[in-house]
Design goal:
transport; cell inner membrane; 0% strand; SecE_bac; Translocase_SecE/Sec61-g; mainly alpha; protein transmembrane transporter activity
Length: 60
């Protein structure tokens, strides 16, 4: 097991290798995630509505 100073040195070295996303990339991916979440919500709402209509038609 490495001593704490060596461990912290290795952590600092690894953190230096990280490639952070640009602001544009963060905004773009956030917009894409929100858009896909809205599309999925609309899709499942429509599917639920159609199933609900079908079940009501069967029992009326």
């Amino acid at each position: 097991m490495a001593n704490p100073i060596q461990f912290l040195s290795q952590v600092r070295s690894e953190v230096g290798k990280i490639t952070w996303p640009t602001r544009r990339e963060v905004v773009l991916t956030t917009v894409m995630v929100l858009t896909m979440a809205m599309v999925a919500a609309i899709f499942f709402s429509l599917v639920d509505w159609v199933i609900n209509l079908g079940i009501k038609a069967m029992f009326i």
